[in-house]
Amino acid sequence: MIKKILKSFKLIKSGDWFVIFMFGILTVTSAKFLWGLPQGKYLEIYKNNEILATYSLNQELKKQIHGPKGVTEIIIDKGKVRFSSAPCPKKYCIHQGWINKANQIIVCIPNKISISIVGSKKKYDSINY
Amino acid sequence: MTLSTIKITQRDHEIAKLSAIAVALSLIEFFFPSPIPGVKPGIANIIILYTIIRFDLKMAIWVSLIRVFVTSILLGSFLSPTFFLSLCGALFSLFSLIILKNLNHKYFSLVSLSLIASLAHILGQFFVVRIWIIPHDGIFYLLPIFISSAFIFGLVNALVTNKLLQLNPKK
Question: Which of A31, A89, A100, A110 is least enclosed by beta carbons within 10 angstroms?
Fold first, then answer.
């Protein structure tokens, strides 16, 4: 059986190997390009669509934010971040879990708080942690 | 009794036979559970490849389009999004086959043909999905999965077709 399969590979000609090689490159580059978002460096917290604060992700921190419905707690843990408690009824923000890549966001609409991770660019130097 | 004015040639019989096999394979594939939604082996394309090698390109186009239409009518998805996905994939891969038919046979065998046609099939379907069914850039996250599945199944289909060609030597 294996011998037969190996035998059938012999009909692959040199041009075919080239096509197979190009296919491999295409798969790897597309995966890298589409999946490999860079690790985030900074966390931006928004309240009512206005930026409230920016924190470095490289720390351990619990942060309470007062929104219109109550207190939302965010946990930063060495490169990743999540909502740990929120006053909203459905808790979608908590169920999103940890995020760690640049441009990922978690939004809590009832409490009007959202967080977003940015890459290595420092946007707001004056209010950085 | 009126005589039929359409002359049915041997060629038409061959097209009918091959299309019937392709439709049967499509139906088997439809009822076969797939591990990842949307990823299908495309075993009907074995017949298209077989036709293009054993007969010619024009016949392969006939068989492919008949397969798309008859399968959609049998499954009740005629003119639905599924049908247009299938049709656009088939058209893209036929288009790539038209371009690639003149590749040098010394260096390229049906393996390249199958691989590139399966890639074109996937890209054609992605085109329809992006433009019409799910107009959001988020679906591009799925592209690597579909490209790698096109690679695996394109290769397997080519090897199966080759076996089929060996088993049925030209009369």
Answer: A89
